[in-house]
Amino acid sequence: MSTPAVGPFTPAVGPFAFRPLDPLKDAELLHGWVTHPKAAFWMMQDATLEDVERAYLDIAADEHHHALLGLGPDGEPAFLMEKYDPAHRELVGLYEPRPGDIGMHFLTPATDTPVHGFTRSVITAVMAHLFEDPAVQRVVVEPDVGNKAVHALNAAVGFVPEREIQKPEKKALLSFCTRDQFLAATGVDA
User: Fold this and answer.
1) Could you give the CA distance from residue 92 to residue 160 in angstroms, rounded to a whole number?
2) Which of 6, 123, 132, 135 would bridge with 111, disulfide CB 3.0–4.6 Å?
3) In the predicted model, is pLDDT for residue 8 greater than 50?
4) 115 vs 128, higher pLDDT
5) How many other CB atoms sit within 10 Å of the CB of residue 16?
6) Could you tell me the CA-to-CA distances from 75 to 12, 149, 156 in Å, in that order?
């Protein structure tokens, strides 16, 4: 199956909209995204369609983990976003969570027509969306230490690395971004 192309977009286009992911209806689309070589750090390269359905059905049933699709100006899915409560998922026992912490993952699909600045626009929109919730004070991420591209994107929106941690599936760079750090880095007042 080929990966659907995303676009055309320009960084100034937006805002992106968000909708809850439907694990059954969106599984085929997601399967193309998460199994593409570009998505190696998503760690689902060998996943079958059924594996993807099952993984996102599990997320849909989890009160501490949510998956959303980011929609482009045409209303079509443009990226995947996950948010989770790090006191209950992903980082349990690996750091001391604070009230107002939320964890985040995002994935932009591979495309034959990349648009310069698209992924930075996506992470900015994801962060703004998270900070729309007044209860969120700090976003926590734990990307693979080898994912240099996402480290640069994280820094661009205000993330500050704290330390490397060992998760069961990877060595990760634990990083944090407060509301004020996001505003200082991007000028976006969420």
Assistant:
1) 20
2) 6
3) no
4) 128
5) 21
6) 16, 27, 26
Partners of 172 in the β-ladder? 144, 165
Single-letter amino acid code for the residue at 52: V
Report which DSSP code applies to 72.
Answer: -
Which two tokens mark 166? 């060992």
Collapse the DSSP code of 71 into the 3-class scheme (helix H, G, I; strand E, B; otherwise coil) and give the result.
strand
- CA angle, 42 then 139 then 60, to 5°: 55
**Is the model's pLDDT at 156 over the cut of 80?**
yes
Is residue 86 within 8 Å of 60, Cβ to Cβ? Answer: no
Q: What is the pLDDT of residues 67-123, one digit of tens each?
A: 999 998 888 999 999 999 999 998 999 999 999 999 999 999 988 888 888 899 999
The size of the chain, in residues, is 190
Rounded distance between C-alpha atoms, residue 50 and residue 41, angstroms: 20
Query: Taking a C-beta distance cutoff of 8 angstroms, is the pair 108, 93 a contact?
Result: no
Q: How does strand 101-107 pair with strand 138-141?
A: parallel
What was the pLDDT predicted at 14? 58
Tokens describing residue 175: 């990083």
Which residue matches tokens 């790090």?
Answer: 86
Catalogue the E-assigned strands of the chain: 17-20, 65-71, 77-84, 101-107, 138-141, 160-166, 171-178
The distance between the two most distant Cα atoms of the chain, rounded to a whole number of Å, is: 42
